Amino acid sequence: MEIVITEAENGKCLRDYLKKDLGMSRAELSHLKSLDTGIMINGVRVTVRAVLATGDVLFLDRDDAAAGGNVMPGDIPLDIIYEDGDIIALNKPAGMPTHPSHGHYYDTLANGLAFYFAKKSIPFVFRAVNRLDRDTSGIVLVAKNRASAYRISSEMSRGGIKKTYIAAAVGAVYQSGTVIANIKRRYESIIERTVCPENEGQYAETRYAPLYTDGKVTLLEVRPVTGRTHQIRVHMAYIGHPLCGDTLYGEESELIGRQALHCSRLEFTHPTTGERITLSAPLKGDMGRLCRRIGADIAGAV
């Protein structure tokens, strides 16, 4: 199993990532530590005390299916927006985890891709270049081979990959702006993040521009310069405009049953051709209905 480390995991202790993010048990950790190639970063064996960095390729020799190591194929509908011999990009629906973790071993995007490639008799290793929260919809880019994963993750670490989100925020926003505020994990919480002083946490920068407002809700184009966990959600709540439906940093909404956040565009350099690629994922389902209810032009929001 190979995982490309994103900015969201940058600076995390490997032990915490394996236990809290991947839901790995103490027994499985002990098993991996006993193997010569059990836990490796960028081809080098490491201990669980290693600190993760953006662009790292983490390899876990998880061959025991009973321990949840293999991504089991699952007949899950996939919305493929681009595919060639090196990469595949999908429009992930809300409610679907990106990769298996505790409590989600068979219902993830990775399971769906394992089934997709198994039908084609193509060997599959899940190498997601970017990952989205379970209840965030939009583009997920997956590398089909180790070389492509390395090149794209290297570009990400240099800030060369540009991500654009569409979000619906509470309140009226009439001007573009930039939020620069460090983010850290909230004390005693595994999930929740919070803004913190400059000498704490990690630097985080988010740029936003209003697309439409009805005075109560604003449809925004949001571009995270950095990629911290829950960054957009934390920053918008920090300036007094939490995302609609975000019950962790705001309140429930009659407009949508989850945080109103969709990764609509991804710009990157193709790992083989060197061509600059721009992918788009249209708003669908609940985000589309939200736009129609507030009178926003969906076509103009992507």
Automatic annotation (TrEMBL):
It comes from the Bacteria. It catalyses: a uridine in RNA = a pseudouridine in RNA. Residues 87-237 form the Pseudouridine synthase RsuA/RluA-like domain. Keywords: Isomerase. Gene3D superfamilies: Pseudouridine synthase (3.30.2350.10). CDD domains: PseudoU_synth_RluA_like. InterPro entries: PsdUridine_synth_cat_dom_sf (IPR020103), PsdUridine_synth_RluA-like_CS (IPR006224), PsdUridine_synth_RluC/D (IPR006225), PsdUridine_synth_RsuA/RluA (IPR006145), RluA_PseudoU_synthase (IPR050188). One of its GO terms (biological process) is enzyme-directed rRNA pseudouridine synthesis. Its EC number is 5.4.99.-. The active site is at D133. Coiled coil: none annotated. Belongs to the pseudouridine synthase RluA family. GO terms for molecular function: catalytic activity, acting on RNA; pseudouridine synthase activity; RNA binding. Transmembrane segments: none annotated. This is Pseudouridine synthase. It comes from Candidatus Colimorpha enterica. Responsible for synthesis of pseudouridine from uracil. PANTHER family: MITOCHONDRIAL RNA PSEUDOURIDINE SYNTHASE, RIBOSOMAL LARGE SUBUNIT PSEUDOURIDINE SYNTHASE D. PROSITE patterns: PSI_RLU.
